[in-house]
Amino acid sequence: MIYLNGKFMPIEEAFIPVLDRGFIFGDGVYEVIPVYSRKPFRLAEHLIRLQHSLDGIRLKNPCSNDEWRNILEQIIANNDGEDQYLYLHITRGVAKRDHAFPANVSPTVFIMSNPLPQPPEELLKTGASAITANDNRWIRCDVKAISLLPNVLLRQLAVDRHALETILIRNQFLTEGAASNIFIVKDKVLLAPPKSNLMLPGITYDVVLELAAANQIPHEIREISETETRMADEILLTSSTKEIMPITLLDNHPVGDGKPGELFRQLHALYQEYKATHMRGQVV
Ligand code: PDD
């Protein structure tokens, strides 16, 4: 069951007009929210980021946070699986094609839930491979915009080369992945690129940094050069759907000793523990 503009219905019955500005211009924003044991994970943080994205495209939030919580609860209750991921999509609505904003148009709101796949055990054991590419996206990557054509093309480069992700480099510095955030480890220090307009402020990224801080894991938030990325002892990938994964091959060269490293193991275990606390309802 999905949600479309105030109504719950089976996805087969959900249609939007071809003049929707999401379809015509990619004029909209979205969120992806993981659900564990039927409880949305870090929902408050996702709703704050949604507001930031809406502000970034000058679109009024169509719902209050209580209304979002209520709709999402119903979607979760009416879909199978203890662990799900919610996809929430808002566009500027349906209007005659004109680049400028239409007057008095209601936004289109679409929400669906899908089963949340567990990151494959094998990849957690061996690590995944990634490639690098030039970050040729716009310079408002902090807005979670539905217009994802550059990300789509960049991710496909990885798939073409049988890799999991494309790691993006802008002006010789690491930004993020095509659909993930990227950390590196050098000399036992976890390094994270600082939040800016050049990357999406990941919710998982925040969790990882909070866990590092709470567990005395040495970490620094600073610009990371392409060379440092290539010379890293470990590379870690984070996202709501992939959680935390080790990258052990970069452009066909082993990362460090080519195996998932100590900091990955530590942070992965801490992340699972944090999720368990969330599932017991001890964090909201
Ligand atoms: N993508 N950077 C980009 C460009 C992303 O698309 C994502 C997530 C992230 C990680 O953010 P978070 O930890 O909040 O999931 C970073 C989602 C999962 C997607 O588009 O499907």
TrEMBL record:
Its cofactor is pyridoxal 5'-phosphate. It comes from Nitrosomonas ureae. This is D-alanine transaminase. PANTHER family: AMINO-ACID AMINOTRANSFERASE, D-ALANINE AMINOTRANSFERASE. CDD domains: D-AAT_like. Keywords: Pyridoxal phosphate. One of its GO terms (molecular function) is catalytic activity. InterPro entries: Aminotrans_IV, Aminotransferase-like, BCAT-like_C, BCAT-like_N, Class-IV_PLP-Dep_Aminotrnsfr. GO terms for cellular component: cytosol. GO terms for biological process: amino acid biosynthetic process; carboxylic acid biosynthetic process. Coiled coil: none annotated. SUPFAM superfamilies: D-aminoacid aminotransferase-like PLP-dependent enzymes (SSF56752). Belongs to the class-IV pyridoxal-phosphate-dependent aminotransferase family.
